[in-house]
Each structure stands twice: as structure tokens, then as C-alpha cells.
Amino acid sequence: ELKVEQNPLFLSMQEGKNYTIYCNYSTTSDRLYWYRQDPGKSLESLFVLLSNGAVKQEGRLMASLDTKARLSTLHITAAVHDLSATYFCAVDGNRDDKIIFGKGTRLHILP
Amino acid sequence: EAQVTQNPRYLITVTGKKLTVTCSQNMNHEYMSWYRQDPGLGLRQIYYSMNVEVTDKGDVPEGYKVSRKEKRNFPLILESPSPNQTSLYFCASSPHRVNEQFFGPGTRLTVL
């Protein structure tokens, strides 16, 4: 059974700092997605990672995928307040068509 | 405008009263899915559909039904709602399974 674990679940950090959110999953998969959710809003797609070693960058966010380690990271560079949100990773299991989400990382960036 | 719509956006109902939450997308997407979001549990997949007339159970299907008679619509049916189905529900679609999903605005359901 595919399980997806994110950590940390809560993160409070200051503007200008760097940090990384981790997403571990339990079974083989080479398809991983990152989403952002603002308070009271729906989810929007950030990155789609479809192969081992995939790296995607958008502004201050960079996501990578290591399928051998079953690990994806979302790195935040020089955080700004606008990046405050909850970030979810989601994994597409190879053996079935289900998509399993992590519990989310609530990121609070202090000015 | 390309979008996923859900109705109603808010619903308060009582235990046992059948209800349907509609979901529609105008992007000709093949894959559609329903999720529920609960505090501390993230999003959990209820049902998904790979295409018309093809549906399958997600992680938490108990107490829910779906149908996919047309490509654009994917309604979620609660035949006999119970208080533990109080939650925030999201519908999502994608061109095919291996792709980012586009989410609807959400439906906040309260079952008394």
C-alpha cells in the first residue's frame, strides 16, 4: 500500500531564509506532483516530476525527484511572505491508478 | 475559461438525506477524481474515473457513489450521509492520469 509522508508538517521561517520540505513515499513510483493551497482556497499545481532525477524550478521554488530513494524535495530560496501557504506532494502509484497525497506542510513566512 | 466547477459550494444537511454534489469540467479531460480534505489528514481520494463509464475506488470510497455518463460530468452521490462525512470536498480533472490535476473550488458539506 502506497503511503506518502511529508515533513515537516508545520514550518515557520523568516523572510530571506532557505528551507526544504521533504516528501517520502513507500512504494515504487516515478510520478510525483506538488501543489499549493492558500487558506480557504483550492489547490493549484506547482510541479510535475515524471522521472528519476527530474528537477523543476519556478521562481524561488525548486522541486526534485529521486525515485531510488523514494524522495522528493521542495526547496525554497530566500523566502518571501507571499510563499506562505500549505504545500502538498502527491504520488501516483505505479500499480494502480490511485493518487495519494501527503498531509501537507503549512508554511508560515514571517516578515 | 478553462475550469472545474462544483455545486453547491456550501451545504448543510441532515443524516440520511440523499444528496448529490455535481462536478463539471470544460477542458475535455479524461481523468476526474473526488477528494475529501479533513484537518490533519490532507486530501484523500474517494473515487476516480479514467474515462466515460470507467470509475474505480480510491482510498476512502465507503458511503459514496459516483457515475461518469458524460466526459465532462462526475457527480458525487451520498445515498445516506452521516456526520463523519462532514468535510471539504474537491473535484479535480486532468488530461489523463499522468498529469497535473486542476481542482474545483471545493464544496463544504456539513451533515448534522
Assembly type of the chains comes to heterodimer
Q: So how many helices of chain A?
A: 0
Class from helix and strand fractions of chain B? mainly beta
Mean pLDDT of chain A: 93
Beta-strand share of residues of chain B: over 45%
Query: Biggest interface: chains and residue counts?
Result: A-B, 20 and 25 residues
Order of helices and strands of chain A: EEEEEEEEEEE
Number of strands of chain A: 11
Radius of gyration of chain A: 13 Å
Distance between the termini of chain A: 41 Å
Mean pLDDT metric of chain B: 95
Name the features:
heterodimer, A: 111 residues, mainly beta, 6-stranded mixed sheet, 5-stranded antiparallel sheet, 11 strands, globular, B: 112 residues, 4-stranded antiparallel sheet, 0% helix
Which helices and strands occur, and which strands form pairs?
The complex is a heterodimer of chains A (111) and B (112).
Chain A: E1 4-7, E2 10-14, E3 19-25, E4 32-37, E5 43-49, E6 55-58, E7 61-66, E8 71-76, E9 85-92, E10 99-101, E11 105-110
Parallel strand pairs in A: 2-11
Antiparallel strand pairs in A: 1-3, 3-8, 4-5, 4-9, 6-7, 7-8, 9-10, 9-11
Chain B: E1 4-7, E2 10-13, E3 19-25, E4 31-38, E5 42-51, E6 54-57, E7 65-66, E8 76-78, E9 87-94, E10 102-103, E11 107-111
Parallel strand pairs in B: 2-11
Antiparallel strand pairs in B: 1-3, 3-8, 4-5, 4-9, 5-6, 7-8, 9-10, 9-11
Description:
The complex is a heterodimer of chains A (about 110) and B (about 110). With about 110 residues, chain A is mostly beta strands. Chain A is about 0% helix and about 55% strand. Chain A is built from no helices and eleven strands. In chain A, the strands form two sheets. In chain A, strands 2, 4, 5, 9, 10 and 11 form a six-stranded mixed sheet that branches. In chain A, strands 1-3-8-7-6 form a five-stranded antiparallel sheet, with no helix packed on it. Chain A is globular, with a radius of gyration of 13 Å. By secondary structure, chain B is mostly beta strands. Chain B has strands at about 5, 10-15, 20-25, 30-40, 40-50, 55, 65, 75-80, 85-95, 100-105, 105-110. In chain B, the strands form two sheets. In chain B, strands 2, 4, 5, 6, 9, 10 and 11 form a seven-stranded mixed sheet that branches. In chain B, strands 1-3-8-7 form a four-stranded antiparallel sheet, with no helix packed on it. In chain B, strand 4 (about 30-40) and strand 5 form a beta hairpin. The chains are: A mainly beta (about 110), B mainly beta (about 110).
